[in-house]
Amino acid sequence: MADFYQNGIVTTLHNLTRRPVAELDAELLSFSKKRPLGLILPSLYSELEGTALPNIVEELAQVPYLSEIVIGLDRANEAQYRDALAFFSNLPQHHRVLWNDGPALRALDAELIKMGIAPTEPGKGRNVWYCIGYMLATGRSESIALHDCDILTYTRELLARLIYPVANPQFNYMFCKGYYARVADGKLNGRVSRLLVTPLLRSLKKIFGEMDYLQYMDTFRYALAGEFSFRKDVLNDIRIPSDWGLEIGVLSEMYRNNSTNRLCQVDIADVYDHKHQDLSAQNDQGGLSKMSIDISKALFRKLATQGQTFNTETFRSIKATYYRIALDLIETFRNDAIINGLTLDIHHEEKAVELFARNIMKAGESFLDNPMEAPFIPSWNRVISAMPNVLERLKAAVEEDNKRFSK
């Protein structure tokens, strides 16, 4: 059971009483009369063939308060898109599947790319961006949750707790981040969050001092959680990375655009497990290796926008400071694991820290070598300004695909 501690940067909403999910559902159903609620599910086709997503759909079928569910489908051919339409047809809520690789959406994407206002690389960021655009086009939802499709321990309580802070009309939150303990199979997981993000943020504080932004980022108990919710009003202006920096980028955008008293984090699950990425120590274009580079660059870019300057010596200092803090944290996590009857392999933990330290330098070198890199997907406000009918066209393309291929 969580404590009730508040650190004063963003509100933390704890799970103190284990409310029955039926009680939460009933409240959310009443909220939805004033503030319609929606859900975004960014998915790979391969996840339809796994064990997590079928259970997620079964749980969502019992949710009474959602006005719409939007599924972004990546890496699917026509036959697989048809399979996806059948797969999600069990959902009783109004729902649509965005076939991101289909000819209709690809044609629109090609036009936007020519104009320089589209995502430049595939991935979750691109998928989420188009789902956001579609939700802006439909106007069906005022408050929206987003979660991944590979959650092995999913129950509908996770969604209820995630969307509640932006659904309750008495609350003023514009954005909510989910958090949870990453524990499964008797082990402490979440290496990138524990061994990269936390010590890197604390090393940046040592180098640059106690900046409000760094304190804000270090407030989040699980900064890399793929589960968050928001009011529709925040979606037009948000600029997000298309790479593994998505979660850091979203938190940074919320900080840029909102007062921190309009932001919160909420405990959404006692147990959480999903598919695990390989460390990929020999390949910095995949797995946790690429993730660590993208996340590090996302933080460096944000600090640069706040006037901080970087050079090779700066990154050497960051790496050295990070390495010492991360190694000390391994002992902390080891003791936390032991008192809870969990295991933690110190050798593998230190191998991860060594890789992340190298990748902090790689991220720094890339940052210095590519000063004109445009890492963010343009905001929908900019896209609408350049192509005023883009939302209508996006909606029409999705509806056309759904009608044509669901037969």
What does this structure look like?
By secondary structure, this protein is α/β, with parallel strands linked by helices. The protein contains 14 helices and ten strands. Strands 1-10-6-9-5-2-3-4 form an eight-stranded mixed β-sheet, with helices on both faces. α11 runs antiparallel to α12. The longest helix has 28 residues. It is globular, with a radius of gyration of 21 Å.
As a percent range, the share of strand residues is 5-15%
Strand order of the largest sheet: 1-10-6-9-5-2-3-4
Question: Which outline best applies?
Answer: globular
Total beta-strand segments: 10
Mean pLDDT score, rounded? 93
Output the number of helix runs: 14
Q: Would you identify the regions where 5 or more consecutive residues have pLDDT less than 50?
A: none
Sheet with the most strands? 8 strands, mixed
Rounded radius of gyration (Å): 21 Å
Order of helices and strands: EHEHEHEHHEHEEEHHEHEHHHHH
Q: Quickly give the structural class.
A: alpha/beta
How far apart lie the N and C ends? 48 Å
Fraction in helix: 40-55%
InterPro entries: Nucleotide-diphossugar_trans
Keywords: Transferase
Protein name: Glycosyl transferase
Organism: Simiduia curdlanivorans
